[in-house]
Sequence to fold (458 residues):
Amino acid sequence: MTRSQGRALALAGAIALVSALLAVLWGYHHGSGQPQQTSMPLHLPSAGRDPGISGFCGGTVTSLSDATQAAPFRVLFPSSSAANQDDLSVVYWCPDSSQVAMSFASGVIVDEGPSTLTDPPSTWADIVKAYPGGGYSVASVRGQPALMGDPTSPVPGGQDGLEWVEGGLQVTIYGDGKTPLKELLSVADSLQPIDSAQDSA
Amino acid sequence: MQAKDSQIRLVKGLAMLFAFVLCTGISTRSANAYTQPDVSCLTDNQGYAGKVNEEGGELGLFKGIKGNEWFDNWTGECERVSSIFAYKSSCDFIEFGWSLGYDPLGNYWKAPQLFEAWRPPLSCPTAHNPSERNLGTQALDWHTLALQDGNQDGTWSMYIDGQTPNIGWATVDFGSGSIATNSERHTTCDPKNPPPNTVCDSAWAHYDSLQQWKPSNSGYTLFFSQGMGPYNTDPWYYWNFISETETYVKHCSVINC
Fold:
């Protein structure tokens, strides 16, 4: 290799290196594959991913008596301090899934509908396994295996409720994120078929 | 003489290399001529600046939804989402799709990110569980997304182009529910054109050949969706969002109808 060839090669190498460096920097600045962390904390609920489901289950607001007549099952109604006739705020009826949801002033929601699960006890066990340390446990409610979510669990998620299936009816009781389990169990224990509840009121 | 020839060849080579790098740079520049908005685009006094949600849905009890979905390119969005989801109620849902722009974890993405989001069981008033994976440069292409709980055990699986993405699955407390398409964007002007970004698009998204699983189906037999959105005609048609004023997926025979 002559001296001039060597010089030319060195020049070529230098230019190629600078070009590559520029290209990499350009790509990094304008690239699309990597996330750019923001220093400002985001307000989570504003960042999308909200499915915007209306009427609790895509249903309509109705009266308790209308929901009771429309539902293809005997609606269970609570009479506890956290959920009772006087504190009933809203009733939703979702005809396509045959769900009745009752919302109370305490923040408690009672959701009832035909079971969507083939083997509920197995699902409860799967949930306990899927969220280790998540405050979930399986217990017995109204004589049925039930999923319990303890709001005092120090784990993100804020699970707070009970769920079980009785006579083919999937019953879910949601707390407001801080309702003690004891209170939710009282709601569950107080549930009676709506006609019986009204008779006894 | 030989040395001079080599020098000429080298100079020619260098010129070609320089031209290549320059062209690559220019094409990259023109493909990314948008500016990243400030994170404040996500919020205003109400916390929902220009939030547009457009959904098409079919109420009932389904154990899955599948459809071809268009993965769009980054055009300076504040935040954009296109997804399919299944839900039992606003307390119980699972969602699978792609997003651009700011995500709930504080990242800003310029390529579609695959994500799943759901509410853990019995956690009605609390936040979602988002999980996401970088899809790199797979924008501007159709991908088949599916979300299903075939045996209705409460564990929902997600598939993209027939494969399980590496973002896990979700165990929830429902095995069937209503199904829907979902499109979202933030700000009143997610720019469609390069700066000054004066032309804005809507939250449009494209869904083609949506299908559904019914609980009565044994196994995983698919049926074309017949009732999603307000139109009930040919189920092989496209599903488009083209306007902020639409509340449902539009059902028509061509893209961008």
Observations:
- Chain B has two domains: 1-28, 51-252.
